[in-house]
Design a protein that fits this description.
Number of domains: 1
Number of helices: 2
Number of strands: 3
Strand content: 5-15%
Shape: flat
Helix content: 40-55%
Bound molecules: zinc ion
Low-confidence stretches: none
Mean pLDDT: 80
Order of helices and strands: EEEHH
Structural class: alpha+beta
Radius of gyration: 13 Å
Length: 75
Amino acid sequence: MARCPDCGGEVKYKAPFMVCLDCGLSFRRGELDRVKTEVRAEQKKVIGESTEETEKKERDRKRAYHDWYLKKEEK
Ligand SMILES: [Zn+2]
């Protein structure tokens, strides 16, 4: 299962795009590596901005919940 490079959420393939179910990020198949690099560059650019910090915390919370949910499903 592919993971969103931005928020770590679940990604579904909806031709011709891969779409993140959590944040709505969409990209073509094969672009994942490029998108990852772009997202990282974007995050570096906005480091220090309070809105981004809030967003990041929200993402981390979501990811933690997602991981918990997946662990629960494995059992
Ligand atoms: Zn996402």
